[in-house]
Amino acid sequence: MIRLHVLIFLITSFVMLASGVYIATKHKIKNNKLNMSIIQLLVVATITCLAYTFVISSHVLEKAELAYSLYFVGIDWILITFLYYARQYTKIWHEGYSAPLITVSIAVLDSISLLCNSKWHHAFVLEKMVFPNGEWFYDFTISDYYMVHLTFCYILVALVVVILAKKTFTTSGVHRNRYLAILVLFLGLILLNVLYLFFSFPLDISMCFYAIGTIVIGYYTLLYNPKTFVEYMLSTITERMECALISFDENDICIYSNQFANRLFCPSGDKRIFEDRFKRWRQGKDTNSISNTSWNDIYTINDEEYRFDVHFNKIYDKRGYYCGCYLSFYDVTGDFLAYEEEKYRNTHDALTGALNKESFYEEVKKLLDENPTTEYIMCCCNIKGFKLINDMFGVDEADKLLVRCADAIREKIKPGASFARLEADRFAVIMPKVRYTEELFMTGMNKVSHYLNNAQYRMTILVGVYDIYDRDAPVISMVDGAFLAIDSIKGSFKNSIAYYGDMLRHEYMSEQKILGEFEDALQTGQFAMFLQPVVDMNGKVSLAEALVRWIHPDRGIISPLSFIPLLEKTGYIYKLDLYMWDQAAKRVAYWESMGIDDISVSVNISVKDFYYVDLFDVFTGLVEKYNIAPHKLKLEITESIFMTEKERQLEILNSLKEYGFLIEIDDFGSGFSSLNMLKEVPADILKMDMAFLSIDKNANRGRKIINTIITLAKALEMQVIIEGVETKEQLDYLSGTGADFLQGYYFNKPLPVKKFEEMYLQSSFIN
Ligand code: C2E
Ligand code: CA
Ligand code: CA
Q: What is the CATH number for 454?
């Protein structure tokens, strides 16, 4: 029969062993010194407990004595491992090895000494005491050395207490309890031990307290404490979260709401309010059959509108039973406003608040798709010479004007229509055809234009109207159509409206055709250089003007007037001009190679060329490539180059002139800045068209003008070419004016190069 107290000690040992095994398997001990220390503690305590169990169950005194020694050794090691545990738990003196080495060394020596007790009995003596009822115990008498052992044990105890106390008092707040709990527990164990020593029971039950204490410490350190700490942290986090959290149990009773939720929905904190609201929140949402869902809601709180992302989640336990649910409300008002603002910025023009081009195109498509039975028109308008307004009145005034334009349009159009500022001064409106009247637009525009009109300036707004008959066509072509109508209003000085009709449509189509064919035509050599002779007063041809002809495979020779303005408008002209200049330079070089070096060629330069190519590089490159003198190429420019970036253009012309090219001012007198041009441009030759002077109709005045201009040119050391000479009378008259050269149908039309050479250079070729 096992005696009861032996059984208790055996069970205690088993429980400790089981706890150790549980911790070792449940927690990853490899990387965690704290777990390791608790396992060590349990193992050592188990061995110690078993040793004591042996003492109280063994009848053989010698064996009991040895087991008792082992028990004391165990106490040493329990304290050593506890010290190790305290260091790991508190992270005080947990690094470094010198102090542990000393305590461990003393513990080893003490252990050896204790184990030798059976030989010398220097620590204690056991004596078996048998009671009359047959019970027996070992009586334990201490010797001198026992005090050494005890002192060592209390030093270890003191170290543990110091470490735990230090940590307890240096830690603040929620963490202090972690250390205080262990300290109190430890002190309690020691106290029980002291009490036992004091009362000297026959049975050392303090071992059981140690065992229970060790298990409690293990549980507290590894399970309870981290869990409560995590709970504390989580509840603090949820309290402080910038979203409202409300949770309900399985009966829809509100069990938790964080501060944010209270502030938002229920300042009084009365949870029943949440329960009432919960019913409303769930209305219309299928929260019974699904485990989570989300939606957007708008709430007015303190008269302000808030937008929330609401999430509803159900919680189930491990076995899948419903436990409750929670709602989270994220305030997305800021994001929503930022998104709306960003959307507005991306779709609207910042200055006028009108739609921008891209969103207008989308809007038009949408309107047409959504209202298939409504007929629409596209109205576009722009301000004539808007650039001039910028220059005359300044950018701020021009901006104000655009805002007024937009406001005027906005005021006139009603829902079902839409408008945009496409760019600069170009506006577009799409509206149902039935609502359109000319007055609708003109009254608005007249009002706007009056705003700027003054003695020097009259503002003109032009409106183009395109009837959307082809709803599936790209919106851009509808807008193009309206602007094409505007282009057809030429020379108007009052606000005008034009309509995109069959004529315009036809013109538009043919322009598109030309542009579509242009590149290919250039590649396949459909463009030919024609030369028109320029004769001097003795009838000698020392100059020719290079004029382009498009030899179209189907349409025959096409006049440059049908495609040059279009190429200029679209910017493609430079491609053609580069080709023509090359042809001209090449021909001059060819003539030189044939021994003819008294003839040069004038080439035409379009104002757009200044923007698309580096004229200096191109022309110097050409004369180098063909090794010809620069004065053999005469560069014809018109006063249109003065329209924009005058300074830049002048700089280019000056550098070309410096290099040796001769500059001709073409069509002198056709524009408005001719005299200014004479002053500024370093030209060598002035070219004037008879047509501008209508010499036949108004003979006298025309002649006077020609004479004056020629005198002026001479004074500026320029030569004069009169072009457009068609009749003998004109020639006769011009002979006496001092003009240097004449050009015109009277002498010859622009001729194919071969023909020109045959007629004017033949003699030279033969020589
Ligand atoms: P432009 O530079 O003023 O060229 C003179 C135009 O007047 C030529 O028309 C020529 O054929 C025409 N013409 C010559 N003599 C007479 C005459 O006695 N009476 C009348 N009524 N006209 C005469 P074309 O060749 O049709 O060229 C028209 C315009 O096209 C040119 O005017 C020029 O501005 C432009 N152009 C022609 N070829 C080129 C080119 O290669 N590059 C550039 N950029 N423009 C060119
Ligand atoms: Ca010309
Ligand atoms: Ca001309």
A: 3.30.70.270
Ligand 1 near 568 CB (within 6 A): no
Do 259 and 318 lie in one domain? The reply is yes
> Could you give the CA distance from residue 693 to residue 699 in angstroms, rounded to a whole number?
9
Cα–Cα distance measured from residue 669 to residue 676, given in angstroms and rounded to the nearest whole number = 11
Do 452 and 495 touch, CB atoms closer than 8 A?
no
In this structure, the chain runs to a length of: 767
Structure tokens at 499: 């309509």
**Site to substitute for ligand 1 among 530, 543, 547, most atoms within 8 A of C-beta:** 547
Atom 23 (ligand 1) nearest CA: 724
Domain that includes residue 394, residue range: 354-500
Which range among 16-20, 414-418, 522-526, 733-737 has the greatest average pLDDT?
Answer: 522-526
**Residue pLDDT, tens place only, 471-528:** 888 999 999 999 988 888 866 667 788 888 776 677 777 888 898 899 999 999 999 9
| Closest ligand relative to 750 C-alpha | 1
Task: Tell me the pLDDT tens digit for each residue of 229-262.
Answer: 888 888 888 888 888 899 999 888 999 888 888 8
Bridge-based pairing state of the strands 292-301 and 304-316: antiparallel
| Cα(91)–Cα(94) distance, integer angstroms | 5
Specify the ligand 1 atom closest to the Cα of 725: 18
Which of 336, 364, 392 is the last residue in one of the domains? 336
Calculate the average pLDDT of the chain. Answer: 87
- The span from the CA of 664 to the CA of 678, in Å, is 11
User: CA-CA distance, 699 to 611, in Å (whole number)?
Assistant: 40
Does residue 359 sit in helix, strand or coil?
Answer: helix
Looking at the fold, whether 261 and 409 belong to one and the same domain comes out as: no
- Dihedral (C-alpha) 479, 482, 487, 491: value to the nearest 10 degrees? -140
